[in-house]
Amino acid sequence: MRAPPVPRPRPGALVSGDPGRLSLFFQQVLNGLTLGSVYALVALGLTLVYGILRIPNFSHGALFMVGAYGAFFVAGTLSANYWVAMAAAALITAAVAVLTERLVFSRLRDAPPLHDMIAAIGLLLFFQAVAQAIWGADFHRIAPPYPGILRPFGMVLPTQRAIIIGAAIGLMIGLQIFLRRTVTGATIVAMAQNREGASLVGIDLTRVSILTFAISGALAAVAAVLFAPINLVSPGMGDLVILKAFVIIILGGMGSVPGAIVGGMVIGFAESFGAFYISTDMKDIIAFALLVVILSVRPEGLFPSPVR
Amino acid sequence: MSPGLRHLGIAAAISAALVFPLVATNDYLIYVMALAYISGIAAIGLNLILGYTGQLNLAHAGFMAIGAYALGILTVDYGVPYWIAFAAAGLIAAALGLVAGLVSLRLRHDYFAIFTLCVGLIISLGIEKWDSLTHGVVGIIGIPAPSPIGPLSFETPVAQYYLVLFWLLAGLWLMNRIVHSLTGRAFVAIRNGEALAEALGVPLMRTKILAFVLSTAYAGIAGALYAGFVRFIGPGLAAEANTFDMVGYILVGGIGTLSGPLIGAVMLTWATQSLQFLQDYRLIVFGPLLILLVMYLPKGIMGTIAARRARRRGLEARRRASDAREIERETAHA
Predict the structure, then answer these.
(1) pLDDT tens-digit map of A158-171
(2) Out of A35, A45, B100, B136, which could bridge A219 as a Cys pair, Cβ 3.0 to 4.6 Å?
(3) Are A281 and B129 in contact (CB < 8 Å)?
C-alpha cells in the first residue's frame, strides 16, 4: 500500500529557507490527515463489531476490499457516477457484512473465541480468493471524480485528499451523533458495554448485531472508495489497512469510538511524518513498531476501556 | 480402542510411511510426501501453543522462515557445516520466540492474535528489506543438502524422505512426552481457563512462554529441514497465508490432539496436489472449509474419533456398573 510520492523540496524552495520548510511540514500534516481519516473509518467499523463479537474481526479488511471492488465494478463496468458507485459499494458491503454475521458469526456465538477468529480468517481467505477469481490479481484503478489540485496557503492538496478528509470527518460526526443521541445508536453502545444487561432491558441482540455489521461494512466500503482513487484496487489491498486498524483499536482501546478516531490520526500522522523524515521504505513498518513498543510497556493498550 | 489396538495403529502408520518410497511410482510423489511431513512438523509445533495452550499464534510461518533463513545464511554465506547450522536454526528460532513471547504472552487472547499477526508481518518485511543479510526478494539459492552422517548420505530424494521421516517421528515422540508430562497438563489447564490454572498454582507466564518457545523451536527445525530439502528459500515463506494453512491442518486433523496436525498436513497437502489445476481457486474452497470445520466439526478428525471413543467407553462403564448392581441385587435377593 503505497501513497503517491511525497513532493520533495525543490532547490528553489530551499533558497527561501523557513517558509518552504514550514509549508512542507504542513504538507505532511495534510497527508497525515488523509491517511488518518481512512484508517479511522476502517477502525471505527472494526471497533463497533468488536463490541458485538468480542474478537478482532479478521475479515474486516476483506470488507474494505469488497467495497473497493464493488465501486470499481459499478463505476467502471457500469460506468456510473463516483458517488453512486460509493453508495452502491456501501450497500453491497453492508449486505455482505450482514451475511457473514448471519451465516457464520451468529452461529458461533457460544463457541470459544478461538473458533470465531479462525472463522474470520476463513472468511478473509474466501473473499480474497473470490475477488482474485473474478478480477484477477492485477491492480485496478478508480478514476478520481475531481482530478484537480487545490492550493490552500501555498500547499498542494489534491482534491481527492480534501474529499477524503471532509467526508471522513462528516461521517465520524454523524456516527457519533447516531450513537450518542438516538435510541437505536444507544442500543449498540449498550450491547457493547454489557450484553447481559442490554438483553435484560429488552434490547434484541440479533437486531443490534445486524445493524452493527451493516454499519461497519458500509464504513469500510466508504473508506475504501475514498482511498481507491489515490491508491490502487487489488485483492490484497485490505491486508495492511486492516492490520493498521488493529493497531489503532489496540492503541485507542477495543470498542472505544473516540479511541478509534484518535488512534487513526496518530497512525496516519506517524506514517506521513515517518515516510518524509525517516524513510519511505519504513513507512509501513512504523505502525507495527509503534504497536510493539507500546504493548511492551502497556499490555492493556493506551486507553484500556473502562467497560470491561 | 484398547491400548493394544492403538499401538497396532501406530505400528501400521509407521510401516506404511517406511514402505511408501518403495511403492511410490516416481520421485515426485516422494517429494510431495516429504514436504507434507515438514509442514506436519511445523503444524505439530503450532498445535502445542494453539491446541494445547489455547493461544492463536499467527506468526508461526515467520518462525519457520527464521529457521530456514538461519540454515540458508549460515551454510551458504558463512560456510558453516550443515548439522551445526541445523541445530543453530532451531536455537535461533527458539531464542527469537523467547523474545517475542516475553512481550506478546502478557496480552489477552485477542490482543495476542493481533500482536503475533504484526510480528509475522514484521518478520516477513524484515526478510524482504534486509538485503545484506537475507538477499532480499531474490532469496537464498544453492543451499547444500544435509551432509552425510557416517555411511548415510542424503543426496537422493528417497534418503531425504527418510531423514525427514526420522525428524517427524522424533518430533512426535517428543511431543507425546511433553503433553503427557506435568508441564503438558499445565498447558491444557491454561487453555481451559487461565484464572483457574493460576489459582491451582500454575505459573502462568513461565508456562505459556515455555509452550511458545517449544513451538517456535519446532517451527525452526521444520524451516531448516525445508531449506535443506527444497534448496531454495524466498521471503514468501514467512507469509501469513502459510500460518493460515497450518491452522487449517490442525483443524482438519484435530486441534489439541497428538497426531491430528500431521494427519491434517498429509491430507490437505495431497488434496492441494490433486486440486493443482484449481491453483488460484484453492482458497475459495479452503476458506469455507475452515468455517465449516469450526462450525460443525470443531474437534477435527482425531478429536472426533477420540470423543466418540470416550463416549463409548463411558457408556460401557455405565453398563458394566449397572450390570454389577443388578448382580448384586440378585445375589442379595437370593
Answers:
(1) 888 888 888 888 98
(2) A45
(3) yes
